[in-house]
Design brief:
Layout (H helix, E strand, L loop, with lengths): L1 H23 L3 H26 L7 H14 L23 H4 L1 H22 L4 H22 L5
Helix pairs in contact: 2-3, 2-6, 3-5, 5-6
Length: 155
């Protein structure tokens, strides 16, 4: 009994290690597409809130709560897709070389975004409309700051 339990545990550990190694070896072009997908979804959930903060969309506390929770999960997803191997992946991307030449500054921009999103999540659970709109604006500011330094201008 103990031997089969030990063998099962060993097999699971080896399988998990193999799976982790397989994910770590994702093709650069796949990594680029995955980070782009995560960023697209960030826009999907942030867009309505930005409209609310600007007064272009009617304010809805339930939408702010739901969308901020989704944005919180998404705020952690794209960053591993900026591996060095993706610099010249041959996929159309708006990523600027500064991402790789200024990694500390890029990491700081990521952290600023994640912190602003976490604050938005916090105030979405009971904060008033004005507080939530201020937090939405802070998230937008971190998006813009990162795009200004690390994303090619789009026409």
């Amino acid at each position: 009994m103990k031997k089969s339990f030990l063998l099962t545990g060993l097999a699971l550990a080896l399988g998990a290690g193999y799976t982790a190694a397989a994910f770590a070896q994702a093709k650069p072009e796949v990594m680029v597409k995955q980070r782009q997908a995560a960023m697209t979804l960030q826009g999907k959930y942030f867009g309505p809130m930005a409209g609310m903060a600007a007064g272009k969309v009617p304010y809805n506390a339930d939408t702010v709560a739901f969308n901020s929770a989704m944005l919180d999960a998404l705020s952690r997803m794209p960053w591993d897709g900026f591996a060095d191997s993706t610099k010249d992946a041959g996929v159309k991307t708006a990523a600027l070389p500064a991402i790789w030449s200024e990694p500390a500054k890029f990491k700081e921009a990521q952290e600023n975004f994640q912190n602003a999103v976490q604050n938005l999540v916090k105030v979405s659970r009971g904060g008033d409309e004005a507080t939530q709109k201020t937090a939405i604006g802070a998230v937008g500011k971190t998006c813009g700051g990162c795009h200004q330094n690390f994303r090619e201008k789009q026409n």
